[in-house]
């Protein structure tokens, strides 16, 4: 048995590794060193070009009788720290102050990586002849383009006919206190760059030009005022937001020739990418614009209806924290979207997310061992 500080010590070692996407910086090697001696088959999959080399880990412990395959998934990469001067202490030196542990990745999501690893160790030590299979799937490309990370491991598993039953992604989902929220799905994300063409000219001779900003403005207002759907029992309504607008030469006397607008849908299961694209096209055509659109589907929505996994996780949270989590599908996309197509039940659960991607990112030290215990209790429910 590992002691109560095992998760904290591993977490400190992980924070000290400067694993900015896609560099794993030896985080997964630390995990492998601990799990391989316990009988986990650990495979490292290096994916992507030399210029953007992604490290992925698939570590599996097979039980001795039939049962589900349960996966603990997460990412070892972190977002850049930004200007060091803004941090109270070095983001890659784990630092304790007032019951908080500071460091880049403390919340997103090295605490979960450490907790999942120690939970897996304790589980197979206590239950060497468990049912089913326990697997860990870690990537170093979640915060980046996510093209050579989890999705590549899923492709490899699919090619081998591997079947997954339950997956917990360790994203930081708690809001005010550990255990108050579990994500049982995520909205889809659909982005586009809209280019509207006009005719460049002198502002003093507008009759010789065509101002694409003026032409776009009413269409933009109409898009912003559109109700795309009303959401449903599991999802809030689909939202549409502009993130960037670019036009103009910088000169004050030139009507620009084009305007570019970047926008993004966060969509519920009540809308489809095809349907949203068609509605945007119809609206732009109604406004008589000369335009082009380049679409990027960031991820399709997924939903895990309440079942054995959310029940086991909810009971584990209640046992450790004394509260029942709310199930929610809010927030950004996660790697859950890549796992859901080959795994019937995917939920996300991790520590408080108040400081993720921020300066002075931190986690409550008092939450670290309870998080490990929640993962451990969930494994015991599903695999013994
Ligand atoms: Zn994350």
From TrEMBL:
What pathway, per the record?
Answer: Amino-acid biosynthesis; L-lysine biosynthesis via DAP pathway; LL-2,6-diaminopimelate from (S)-tetrahydrodipicolinate (succinylase route): step 3/3
User: Which CDD domains does the protein's record reference?
Assistant: M20_DapE_proteobac
Instruction: Identify the residues that bind Zn(2+) 1.
Output: 75, 108, 171
Occurrences of domain Peptidase M20 dimerisation (ranges): 184-291
GO biological process terms, alphabetically, are:
diaminopimelate biosynthetic process; L-arginine biosynthetic process; lysine biosynthetic process via diaminopimelate
Q: What is its EC number?
A: 3.5.1.18
List the signal peptide residues.
none
Assembly behavior? Homodimer.
Q: What is this protein called?
A: Succinyl-diaminopimelate desuccinylase
Report the source organism: Pseudaquabacterium pictum
Output the lineage of the source organism: Bacteria, Pseudomonadati, Pseudomonadota, Betaproteobacteria, Burkholderiales
